[in-house]
Amino acid sequence: MQTLVAPVSKPRSLRTNFSWTFIGNIVYAACQWGMLIVIAKIGTPELVGQFALGLAITAPVFMFTNMQMRAAQSTDAKREYVFGDYLGVRLMSSVVALLMITAITFVSGYRGATALIILIMGLAKGCESVSDVFYGLLQQHERMDRVASSMMLKGGLSLAALASAMYLTKSIVWALLCLTLTWVVTLLFYDARKALLTLQEVAQHRLSSERELQTEVIFKPRWSLKTTVRLLRLTFPLGMTMLLLSLNVNIPRYFIEHSLGSRQLGIYAALSYLLVAESTVVSALGQAAGPRLSQYYAAHNTREFNLLSMRLLGLTGLLSTLAVVIVLLGGRPILRLLYSPEYAEHWQVFAWLVLAGGLWSIASILGYIATACRRIKFQPVALTLVVLVSILTSYLWIARYGLSGVAAEEVVSAAFGVVGLVALTFPRSTRRSTQTA
Questions:
Q1: d(CA 432, CA 166)
Q2: What pTM was estimated for this model as a whole?
Q3: Where do the DSSP E strands lie in 276-324?
Q4: CB 201 within 8 A of CB 8
Q5: Domains contained in the chain, number
Q6: Which are the contacts of 324, defined by CB distance < 8 A and separation ≥ 6?
Q7: Alpha-carbon torsion angle 18, 20, 25, 28, nearest 10
Q8: Are 407 and 413 in contact (CB under 8 A)?
Q9: CA separation (Å) from 158 to 35, 56, 245, 261?
Q10: 406: helix, coil or strand?
Q11: Residue 414 and residue 360: Cα distance in Å, rounded?
Q12: Are 149 and 135 in contact (CB under 8 A)?
């Protein structure tokens, strides 16, 4: 049964897949950023802080329970699992995530509007989580055009819905409810349909009896205890990796909210979200190249594997350097134009955050390379060190130095992240590829 899933057609070029992924991610990130601007313009920094707190609580939970299954799914070059296996595990993990978020919300003492914001954000993340497993199927067959179309559709609808609700009600709660509704609609009426269409295209290359069986079994969630346990063993280290990555991003937010208040958290969230532009490009690179890297590695094609890896790292380093230069030359006017003079006062903090973002972009590419090689178990080791450094530096610097302390914490943590992934993951992956060539 597992051998039925084959590439739908001749693989698209890496340039084509990257172009679609880049466009989709850029449009989606721009829409996400637009939502933050809407909240900042119509609301207050405190309201932005509440929004950021909701993300800070829900994101690590879903990062963990999602177990980066999309990366494992899209790089499953040997087709060890069918789509139904991934879908079944993802549905179960999403329910677990929602229960965890509910428990965290009330145990932490959040009540009223803040609790409601967190819970609604959890529902939205649940929809996003299910969409992600459909993206994994499309990415596995290198149909990044369909993934990109979904992201652009979802981003545009989300921005329109949230902006309309904020303008009419001035309520972040109603805005998030409208946001969640658009994600549900996109999931049901676009993502699921495109995933089914992809499976039907696969089936056209098989006998009619096999075609009927494949569509019925693979598209529906499949819960086999033995298969589920195997899949969880594979992806659990990825889940730990993503949890640690998300914690490293959000640990400063917890300290800011506790020590400096929602207003400073809102300012920090607005500054840090501008880094999404760079991370979007890096994500597009990694997502587009991941399946190809895994194929090179599975085929023991060491030369192409190493060449593509070096190209990814080189391009990421160039983009990161360019971003730092732009901010040093025009950080203050950029922030004044996009937000307000209050945000522009913190342009030096913004410059340090951009430097940290560049380091994390390099670490992200290293992570994609390691995942393609199935060198997964070392990543949590490196990131555990980073989280410990983040906790220590946040505790020592944020309450004492304010947002400047946050900037220093971000740079130090990012540097540890790069060093850790290089030491524990990338060289091992390359040597393994060389030895098996």
A1: 53
A2: 0.76
A3: none
A4: yes
A5: 1
A6: 351, 354, 355, 358
A7: 180
A8: no
A9: 8, 19, 26, 28
A10: helix
A11: 6
A12: no
Contact partners, residue 149, CB within 8 Å, separation at least 6: 24, 190, 194
Give the model confidence (pLDDT) of 295-328 as tens digits. Answer: 888 888 888 888 998 999 999 999 999 999 999 9
Residue whose C-alpha is closest to residue 90's, from 111, 108, 70, 74: 70
Tell me the C-alpha distance between 260 and 268, whole Å.
Answer: 11
Per-residue burial over 126-142, b = 16 or more CB atoms within 10 Å of its CB, e = otherwise: bbbbbbbbbbbbbbbbb
Planar angle of CA 52, 33, 67, nearest 5 degrees: 60
Torsion of CA 368, 372, 378, 382, to 10 degrees: -10
Q: In 43-171, where does DSSP find H-type helix? A: 45-66, 69-74, 83-107, 112-140, 144-169
CB 18 within 8 A of CB 285: yes
Quote the CA–CA distance of 246 and 184 in Å, as a whole number.
Answer: 24
Is residue 435 over pLDDT 80?
no
Residue showing tokens 């466009």: 23
Owning domain of residue 207:
2-436
What residue has token string 């920094």? 45
CB 66 within 8 A of CB 231: no
Tell me the CA distances in angstroms from 165 to 113, 149, 158, one per residue in order.
16, 24, 11
> Per the structure block, which two tokens stand in for 301?
């094609």
Q: What is the pLDDT of residues 28-53, one digit of tens each?
A: 988 988 999 999 888 888 888 999 99
Do 372 and 75 touch, CB atoms closer than 8 A? yes
* Cα separation, 217 vs 1, whole angstroms: 9
**Cα-Cα-Cα-Cα dihedral of 170, 173, 178, 181, to 10°?**
180
Among candidates 268, 281, 278, which has minimal Cα distance to 326? 278
Distance CA 175, CA 181 (A): 10
Nearest to 35, CA basis, from 182, 187, 175, 171: 175
CA–CA gap between residue 375 and residue 425 (Å, rounded): 7
What sign does the dihedral 46-165-126-150 (CA atoms) show?
negative
pLDDT at 215: 44
Packing angle of the helix pair 14-42, 45-66 (nearest 10 deg): 140
The reported pLDDT for the residue numbered 403 is 95
Owner of token pair 């177990």: 67
